[in-house]
Amino acid sequence: MPSNGHIPTTGTSAGRRAVVLALTVAYLAFVGYFTLGPVPWPTAANEAENGVLSPATWADTVTWTSGSPVEFVANIVMFIPVGLLLRGSFPRVPLLLVIATTLALTVSIEVAQIPLERVSDPRDLVANTVGGAIGALFSNQLLRRPTASSSRPTLASQT
After folding, report:
1. Is position 155 within any domain?
2. How crowded is the C-beta side of 152, counted as CA atoms within 13 Å?
3. Which helix (DSSP H) or strand (DSSP E) does residue 112 occupy?
4. Cβ–Cβ under 8 Å, residues 105 and 51
5. Closest CA to 91 of 134, 128, 154, 141
6. What is the rounded CA–CA span in Å between residue 63 and residue 47?
7. Do residues 129 and 102 make contact, with C-beta atoms less than 8 angstroms apart?
8. Total structural domains in the chain?
9. C-beta separation of 7 from 1 below 8 A
C-alpha cells in the first residue's frame, strides 16, 4: 500500500471494465441468438420481399399500424441493456456513436433475418434503436462524475 494511505485503483478500474466488456459480449450473443435463432413459437410471417431493405415496406401504413404494441415495447426493453453495456464498455466513445452503433447492430440483425424464417420489420429497427438510445442516455447519467458542488462535504471541511 502506498505511504499516503490511498489504494491504487488502476487494476480495479481495468478489472471492472473487463467485466462490463464480458457482459456486453455475452448479452450481444444472447440478442444474436434470440433475434436470429430458431423461433420457439409458431409465427405467421407477414413480411414484404426484402424486409427492411424494401422502401415500400417503410412507406406502407400497415407496417406501422399492425403488430403487437407489447412486442414493440419488448424490443425496446431488450435493447436498453445494449446501450447501457456499450456505453459502459466504451465510456469515452461519444454518446451519438454508441447510438449509431446500436442502429448499425439492429440494421445488421434485420438484414440477416431476411433469408431466415424471421420477419425483417422496420418497427423492430426503430424499437431496437430507441431502446439502445434510452440505455445509452441512462448510462450517460450513471457515468457522470460528481462535480465539486454536488459532492458531499467531508468531515475535514465541516470543522
Report:
1. no
2. 2
3. helix 95-113
4. no
5. 141
6. 9
7. yes
8. 1
9. yes
Written as one letter, the residue type at 70 is V
CA 93, distance to chain mean position in Å, is 14
Sequence-ordered list of residues with C-beta below 8 angstroms from that of 137, at least 6 positions apart, any chain: 83, 95
Query: 52 near 125, Cβ under 8 Å?
Result: yes
pLDDT at 60 over 60: yes
Distance CA 123, CA 71 (A): 10
Q: What is the pTM of this model?
A: 0.77
Q: Which domain holds residue 117?
A: 14-41+54-144
- DSSP labels, 50-109: TGGG-HHHHH-HHHHHSS-HHHHHHHHHHHHHHHHHHHHHSTTS-HHHHHHHHHHHHHHH
Task: Grade residue 7 by pLDDT with cuts at 50, 70 and 90.
Answer: very low
What CA dihedral angle connects 142, 143, 145 and 149, to 10 degrees?
A: -30
In a domain, 157, yes or no: no
In a domain? residue 114: yes
Is 94 within the bounds of a domain?
yes
